[in-house]
Write a structure and sequence with these properties.
By secondary structure, this protein is an alpha/beta fold. It is built from nine helices and seven strands, in the order E-E-H-H-H-E-E-E-H-H-E-H-H-E-H-H. 75% of the residues lie in helices and 8% in strands.
Length: 411
């Protein structure tokens, strides 16, 4: 490359080479003319020869001009050929770029379809996961409500026991309950002192004997029988006795009647493995009870030996109160065990609910991350498509053809 002012000459350009050769020849001719002029003083022969040489040079210059014209025509032909080749190359490049753009659009469409399909599958999985979590959560809440209902029921039973204790206090303050006799009085005392499911009236034992009342106590001591006995004739005789002989006879009758009652209760209502190892003999009169403890202490001791305890309405009430406390403790233990069991199940349900909520939160987080990644991929694909759509082919063409085209000389 040769830079002359604003003109750039390429040594690989044929027109440039021809111009340089022509210029060199002209310079050579000028030098020869100068030499000839310097030697103008020579002989005429030399002048003639010089004239002949100048004529030859003139002819050569004319021939050189004709060759330059022919070379210019060839260069125009080459330029036209190169222009046609450049136009064909640009057309091929445009066709190729259109094909590449079409392929890119097809790929983008395919990627968009795949992304939509993946997003649809992800949404279906999320819906299935959410549906399953909802069902499990609903089931857990239902089980939780059932546990709470059981706890409420146990609490109601405890409140019922507390109410029964208050009713027992009412019974103890009611003096009319101590005025009845026999089985009616026993039924009244027991029904008001104990819960309805803790006793049975006229209960038949395995030996075929029927007890006035059977208290269902837990083991130990087990179910215990209360049988009402009232030695009315012996007591009335004792009360009517006026002489010592009558008192002695009435006392003998009292001892015989009470011994018979104690023996009958011991033999009929104490059954090993079925009832408690003792029984109660209910005397419906406080006066008879006081008479036995005041004047017939040996009968009381006999009852202790036979494991038959004599009670009056007042002492029976105290004894039933003690039995009620035993029943209450037993049921409280049962209810406490049930409450403890339900609380354990409730704690397990709450832990299970927390685990399922954590799993649901993890699924939501993963789904959010996948959607964010899909958005990023879609944005990148859109950016690339926009970049291809705005591609400037006119700016790309000169750079692509720079190495294959030759520069024309400026005239």
């Amino acid at each position: 490359m040769i830079q002359i002012g604003d003109t750039t000459l390429s040594l690989s350009d044929p027109s440039t080479l021809v111009g340089l050769i022509a210029t060199a020849m002209l310079v050579l001719l000028v030098i020869l003319l100068i030499v000839l002029l310097v030697r103008s003083g020579r002989t005429s022969q030399v002048n003639d020869e010089l004239s002949q040489q100048l004529g030859g040079i003139s002819n050569a210059v004319q021939l050189l001009g004709q060759g330059q014209d022919q070379l210019s025509g060839g260069l125009r032909t080459v330029s036209d050929t190169q222009a046609n080749a450049q136009s064909q190359m640009i057309h091929r490049m445009e066709t190729r770029l259109a094909e590449v753009q079409r392929q890119m659009q097809d790929r983008l469409h395919e990627n968009a379809m795949k992304s939509a399909h993946s997003l649809s599958e992800l949404q279906e999985r999320m819906n299935e996961t959410l549906t399953g979590s909802t069902v499990k959560t609903t089931k857990s809440l239902t089980e939780l409500q059932e546990r709470l209902a059981t706890i409420d029921k146990a609490q109601a039973n405890i409140e019922k026991l507390s109410g029964d204790v208050l009713s027992l206090q009412d019974i103890l303050s009611n003096k009319q309950t101590r005025g009845a006799f026999g089985e009616i009085q026993l039924n009244d005392i027991v029904s008001k002192a104990l819960p309805s499911d803790s006793y049975s009236f006229q209960h038949t034992l395995s030996n075929g004997k029927r007890a006035d009342c059977l208290i269902h106590l837990p083991n130990p001591p087990g179910p215990i029988v209360i049988d009402s006995k009232f030695p009315l004739e012996a007591y009335e005789a004792l009360r009517k006795a006026e002489t010592q002989a009558q008192v002695t006879e009435a006392g003998r009758l009292m001892k015989a009647a009470v011994r018979a009652h104690i023996k009958a209760i011991s033999e009929k209502y104490i059954i090993e493995g079925e009832t408690a190892d003792g029984a109660l003999m209910f005397l419906p009169s406080e006066a008879v009870y006081a008479e036995l403890h005041a004047n017939f202490a040996e009968l009381v001791r006999l009852g202790f030996e036979a494991r038959v305890w004599i009670v009056s309405p007042t002492t029976c009430m105290a004894t039933l109160n003690t039995m009620r406390a035993i029943l209450k403790d037993a049921r409280m233990r049962e209810q406490a065990g049930a409450i403890r069991k339900e609380l354990h199940l409730l704690f397990a349900d709450v832990n299970r609910l927390g685990d399922r909520v954590e799993n649901l939160d993890r699924h939501f987080h993963q789904a959010s991350k996948d959607i964010a990644d899909i958005k990023i991929s879609a944005e990148k694909a859109g950016t690339r498509a926009k970049r291809l759509d705005n591609f400037d082919f006119e700016e790309l063409a000169p750079d692509a053809d720079e190495s294959s085209l030759v520069s024309l000389p400026k005239t």
